[in-house]
Design goal:
Layout: E1 36-38, E2 41-42, E3 47-51, E4 59-64, E5 67-74, E6 79-83, E7 91-96, E8 105-108, E9 117-121, H1 126-143, H2 150-160, E10 168-169, H3 182-189, H4 200-204, H5 208-212, E11 230-234, H6 241-251, E12 256-260, E13 262-266, H7 278-286, E14 296-302, E15 312-319, E16 322-328, H8 331-341, E17 346-351, E18 359-360, H9 361-376, E19 380-385, E20 387-388, H10 394-404, E21 410-413, E22 446-448, E23 451-453, E24 458-465, E25 470-471, E26 490-493, E27 495-498, E28 501-504, H11 506-521, H12 543-546
Length: about 550
């Protein structure tokens, strides 16, 4: 799964900071200061600040998730500065400090050093962004000179010295994918015109604190498709990535959104039934009858292309006390499992991760936009994402909204235990896109076994151990007491042998669900309700769903 910064549409999704709406700013105004966090995201070791607090000691300790760190008052700004702990868990973490509201959140960026910033720009704002990029940064630098922490001033000066990013349509073809421009290219040529939420003149009269404390919610903006956006890369050049992401969103409110360029990596853990074919195993544990999935396409967004998979999991894997070295493939194995469940379905491999296991935010969004274009042309489609990460990348969520709104369900791996390694009680162990499963629910609730459930278009798939017939110990959060996790939406077998190697983990449970979805869609309307069944010994997916087609 990708280790990975939304919902509804592009312009409506620019929180200036966690929980704060962006503002229509006209002139400086006197408003009640609301406590918040700057920047919205920061990597371990970087400095972050809490602003708008009063009545707390000038120095002390606070918690980032379950990790403790010290804070001190930055007197020029009045903000409380703290260093993100090196052991902080990735993704959104709660900040706790006596006297502070309980709503403070920081997105901890667990990304490789040197990760750059990815920007998405509304087509009608592209000229403005490129023409005013430097001037807006310089304007904020000037207003920040006396009221901002010195480190923030330095970041603004260095960022404003860079040229504006080159922008290209997000759906331009990417090597290894064959992305179809479709509607996005046409949208880029004939953009809608709208008034900006912020402009250069109002920015010159506004300081950073005012930007972080919006005076009003903006009026509703016209709906946009993420696939119509233009994209570009801003080199961080040693700058703190979280500040770069936050500052660019603030000065181009509503017109520009950001993500790290790195979104994660494939997730794997380490099956009984040695060397048996996946379909044989599934027939034994789920009573799967031969089905076809005919007329459905399963899109595998992973490490594989249509011709091969160069990914190798380096090092020895200890599986049932036997070592297996340098196991090949990830996406190819995922595709073979999906095909075993739905042999009549067409597989479409879209490479979004490199042979070293790093996954590209941009390629993933582009691949989802290509799926959306395919869905608009007709047919039935399923997406498999056996990738994920701790950071909630906004481009990924917007693109998932795009495809699911077209009736395309998505199976995403829940994440494995190693995602939570070294975390302590109070840390939240995140894994996106799987952790968005609840926000993709739809329709009326269904009462099932005294529970009220709603179907979802984004299935968070945990692994079910085919030996113990219970939730697998390799699942995220299992064996990590006190670590907080979102529950999965469904379990599926995730242990198989392919080519003499064991493949196990939530990555390989997800394609079981992808295949079941393909089979269902070949003869049934909509998507099935797949509740989370955790009764030991009971099959995790009902036979009526597994064998829904004749």
């Amino acid at each position: 799964m990708i280790r990975t910064a939304f919902r509804t549409r592009l312009p409506a999704l620019l929180p200036l900071l966690l929980g704060a709406a962006h503002a229509q700013l006209s002139a400086p105004a006197t408003v009640a200061r609301t406590a918040g966090v700057y920047p919205a995201a920061a990597a371990p070791g970087e400095t972050a600040w809490i602003f708008g607090l009063s009545g707390v000691p000038a120095e002390g300790k606070l918690n980032v998730g379950g990790q403790t760190t010290e804070y001190r008052l930055d007197r020029p700004s009045g903000w409380l500065a703290f260093q993100v702990p090196q052991a902080a868990a990735g993704g959104p973490q709660t900040l706790t400090l006596r006297g502070a509201p309980q709503t403070l959140r920081l997105n901890v960026l667990t990304v490789p050093p040197g990760t750059d910033a990815l920007v998405y720009v509304r087509p009608d704002a592209a000229k403005t962004v490129q023409a005013e990029y430097t001037r807006r940064l310089q304007a904020l630098t000037e207003t920040c000179a006396k009221s901002c922490p010195a480190e923030v001033q330095s970041v603004l000066r260095r960022l404003s010295a860079q040229p504006s990013p080159a922008l290209t349509p997000l759906t331009a073809p990417v090597k290894g994918q064959g992305v179809t421009p479709g509607l996005a290219a046409r949208a880029a040529v004939t953009p809608a015109v709208r008034a900006p939420l912020i402009n250069l003149n109002t920015l010159k009269a506004t300081n950073l604190t005012q930007l972080l404390n919006p005076v009003a919610r903006p009026p509703a903006a016209p709906a946009d498709s993420i696939c119509s956006a233009l994209a570009g890369t801003v080199p961080t050049a040693g700058l703190p990535l979280g500040q770069v992401l936050t500052l660019l969103e603030l000065i181009f409110a509503g017109d520009l959104q950001t993500d790290p360029t790195w979104s994660g990596h494939p997730t794997q853990s380490d099956a009984p039934y040695r060397d048996e074919k996946p379909i044989t195993v599934l027939q034994k544990v789920l009573q799967v009858r031969p089905a076809s999935g005919k007329g459905t396409t399963i899109h595998i967004l992973d490490t594989a292309t249509a011709t091969g998979d160069s990914f190798v999991m380096d090092g020895d894997i200890n599986y049932y006390n036997q070592l297996y070295g340098n196991r090949p493939y990830h996406g190819r194995a995922v595709g073979e499992i999906a095909q075993a469940v739905a042999p009549g379905a067409q597989l479409n491999y879209r490479q979004v991760c490199e042979k070293d296991g790093s996954c590209s935010t941009l390629k993933t969004v582009q691949a989802l936009c290509a799926v959306a274009a395919d869905a608009r042309r007709g047919g039935r489609h399923v997406v498999n994402l056996s990738v994920g990460g701790p950071n909630p990348t906004r481009g990924l969520e917007l693109a998932l909204r795009e495809v699911t709104a077209l009736g395309v369900p998505v199976a995403a791996s829940y994440g494995n235990r190693d995602d939570c390694a070294s975390l302590v009680a109070g840390d939240r162990c995140n894994h996106y896109p799987a952790d968005w499963t609840r926000s993709f629910e739809f329709g009326p609730a269904v009462n099932l076994a005294s529970r009220s459930l709603r179907p979802t278009m984004l299935f968070s798939v945990a692994g079910w151990d085919i030996a113990t017939r219970d939730m697998a110990t390799y699942n995220r959060g299992v064996g990590n007491p006190g670590v907080l996790t979102e529950a999965p939406s469904v379990q599926a077998p995730g242990e198989f042998w392919l080519g003499g190697y064991p493949y196990f983990g939530t990555s390989f449970a997800a394609p079981v669900v992808s295949g079941i979805l393909a089979n269902w869609m070949s003869c049934q309307p909509g998507v099935p309700l797949l509740p989370l069944i955790t009764t030991p010994g009971q099959a995790p997916i009902a036979a009526s769903v597994v064998n829904a087609c004749p």
